[in-house]
Amino acid sequence: MAKNNMVNNFKNSLFGWETSDLITYREVHALFGGCINTHPDVLEFLINKGEDIHFFHYKSKGNLLGALFLNNKKEIGVDVWRKYPISFDEIILPLSKQAKFFIPNRCKRLSPVNANSVRNISFGIFSKKNVCLAKEQFSKKNVKNRRNEFNKFVREGGRVLSVDDVSTQELVNIYISLFNKRFAGEVKCYSENNLLDIITSLRHMTFGNILFVHDTPCAFDLIFKSHCNEWIYFDVPNGGVDPSYSHLSVGSILMSLNIDSAKQISEKYNKKMFFSLGVDDERWEYKFRWAERVSLGRVLTL
């Protein structure tokens, strides 16, 4: 491990990247932003849980212009989605848009937000990954359908609570229950301890709504949000829906309400909204009712 770190440190130093730490990374992130996967609070949580993360920063004339980090596979980004609900679908690094960087480390899912800052990025034949980002506008027909669905939901005893109005333990219980009802054992849910740990640590980043019919929860997507100077990034890992309420379109209603809430917050702060529904996969065509396909870049390394 030490030998690998020395090799990476030397390779990065050739292109102006200096070994760094979480404190400096947090400073750079405050300047240039990122996504959930690259948020310093997420990284701090994972470091405290034993994840092996190595930081680098880039300076010019004494000014911090960018930062990145490597996981235990020596790739950019944290690949922990099997253990914690932190997606590994899109990577936004804190990089100045007024600077150009050569990144000597592997990454197959770099956001187009970083496209003009990275010299060795390809969106062509070398990159085949896409992410689904919520549309900025929806058709009048779509809006009318969602309104009719919501009105029917309310008539049947439906109500909406913000995640801010529910305790952390309740969020965990609701998530596990609805996740297991949705996937019926085909997809393994996160452990109660891991969910409790991460939601407790990142409670300030949780966002969204929970749907109930009377007092019974029926739909919940665990969403994390990340603020920066120019945008707010919202990320939706797998959520949970009770299929017995499918006649009320609770999954559709929940997605509509969460996107609307995200838009309202973004407009309030006069910031761009990134609302990620995760990877583009033919198994999940429903995403394109809400989202558009965005191509991700691949870093070409030596």
Task: Please give a structural write-up.
31% of the residues lie in helices and 23% in strands. The chain is an alpha+beta fold. It has 2 domains: 2-129, no CATH class; 133-295, 3-Layer(aba) Sandwich (Aminopeptidase). The strands form 4 sheets. The chain has a 6-stranded mixed sheet with strand order 7-10-11-13-5-14, covered by helices on one side. β10 (223-227) and β11 form a beta hairpin. α4 (140-155) packs across α7 (250-268) and α5 (168-183) packs across α6 (192-201). The chain starts with a helix and ends with a strand. The mean pLDDT is 93.
Keyword list:
single chain, 302 residues, alpha+beta, Aminopeptidase, 7 helices, 31% helix, globular
Radius of gyration using CA atoms only: 20 Å
CATH domain fold name of the largest domain = Aminopeptidase
Our estimate of the beta-strand percent is: 15-25%
The CATH first-level class of the largest domain comes to Alpha Beta
